[in-house]
Design goal:
This protein has about 400 residues and is an alpha/beta fold. The chain is built from 16 helices and 13 strands. Bound molecules: zinc ion (ZN).
Length: about 400
């Protein structure tokens, strides 16, 4: 893989950082990152840093080596080559120990001293804003919020449009400048966003390298002791080894922190429970319907957590609390299903511990039966015989 020298193009009020990526003969893909023109001064075209980071995991998965035409920051190159790539390659048979050929530049990259974080208005990002809108530590108060479209959103779809407007209102109320960026990263290099989001997000951070001094990348909220892992890393979310990767992606001029990494999602929710901006703006839903749907797994995970904390009513601006209460027994059954499920959500465990005595027996039995069916359905010959019978019974019931 050859990463061409980045350049900046300005048109229609937008500034675009772009580099040609060549993967073998005849496969040339322009990769770009775009912001409003007034932020164009912060785009970094002098170095390959953003593109190297953004494509690193892709290269390791595809067994590619990398050649950068423009220099890479020397400290960054040292850390990626020496610590990150070997650690990932040695703990996975599927990951290549990618070699990087690049000129180096050891001069500190000047920046405007910005302190940023991404804003989805989910639990993790609101936790960052609560703690760093006005930090007691000098130089750690947020100057900008970012909505980076590098794989989590589909541009033009209702969810992204709604999310951008929601973030705008939140940023305005908090009095913090919002940068809305766009990129073709997800279209040009199709990757599983869950497995690679640290890389695509750091691509966005390094694209604006001349702005940032500090960037808070919100941690996922797993218990650190249980979550940190490099084993078979190609199959797990990149947030499982962010303590390593974000350290390798930090330099003496740009520090990226895994904010909240010392606590769990449930503890973050506890911290947010009394914070009025969270009560007004919390948005966790992944459905393409705008406001929280109240039914998807992320909504249920958050609703049951707020239930366990005894603060549901405080969030009736962002959730239909009455609808949750009306289905509370079934919702607790869902929580039990997560607890016993082979693919259950580990983040719900502390919530389950808090609510386990309130889960009705009938809901437990229903969840056990459902989990049993899911496990049996994984046995192919059994699924082929039993599934049509169940479908016929369901059809009769409907009639
Ligand atoms: Zn939802």
């Amino acid at each position: 893989m050859r990463i061409g020298s980045p350049r900046i193009e300005c048109r229609n009020g937008r500034a675009r950082l772009i580099a040609e990526i060549r993967i073998g003969e005849g496969d040339v893909r322009p990769l770009w990152f775009e912001v409003e023109e007034k932020y164009g001064q912060y785009l970094c075209a002098e170095r390959s840093d953003a593109f190297l980071i953004g494509l690193l995991n892709f290269a390791q998965r595809e067994w590619l080596d990398i050649v950068c035409e423009a220099p890479v920051s020397a400290q960054l190159l040292y850390q990626i080559r020496t610590y990150l790539i070997p650690s990932l390659a040695r703990n996975s048979k599927a990951m290549h120990e990618t070699r990087i050929e690049a000129p180096m530049d050891d001069a500190p990259m000047a920046n405007a001293g910005g302190v940023g974080t991404g804003i989805s208005c989910g639990v993790d990002s609101l936790h960052v804003v609560k703690n760093y809108a006005h930090s007691p530590y000098p130089g750690l108060s947020l100057t900008h919020l970012c909505l980076n479209n590098v794989g989590a959103y589909i541009e033009g779809k209702g969810q992204y449009t709604w999310q951008a407007e929601h973030a705008r209102q939140f940023a305005k109320e908090m009095g913090i400048e919002l940068i809305v960026s766009n990129s073709n990263m997800a279209a040009a290099f199709q990757q599983n966003h869950l497995l690679t989001h640290t890389y695509s997000s750091c691509f966005a951070i390094y694209a604006l390298q001349k702005l940032w001094k500090v960037y808070f990348y919100a941690s996922a909220g797993y218990d650190l002791q249980e979550a940190f892992s490099l084993r078979d890393n190609e199959r797990h979310s990149s947030d499982h080894y962010e303590l390593l990767s974000l350290d390798c992606f930090s330099t003496r001029t740009l520090q990226i922190y895994s904010e909240g990494m010392a606590i769990t999602r449930f503890e973050k929710e506890r911290e947010l429970a009394d914070w009025p901006p969270a009560q007004k703006y919390l948005h966790v839903c992944t459905m393409d319907t705008g406001p929280n749907c109240g039914h998807c797994s992320k909504c249920l995970r958050t609703l049951t957590a707020l239930d366990a904390l005894g603060c549901l009513q405080r969030f009736d601006n962002v959730f239909d609390v009455l609808a949750y209460q009306a289905r509370r027994a079934r919702n607790l059954g869902w929580l039990y299903g997560q607890h016993i499920g082979a693919d259950g959500d580990a983040m719900t465990e502390p919530v389950y511990d808090a609510l386990k005595d309130e889960i009705p027996l009938g809901q437990k039995l229903h969840a056990i039966a459902r989990e049993g069916y899911i496990r049996l359905a994984k046995i192919e010959w059994l699924r082929r015989r039993v599934h049509p019978i169940l479908e016929r019974l369901r059809g009769r019931k409907r009639l």
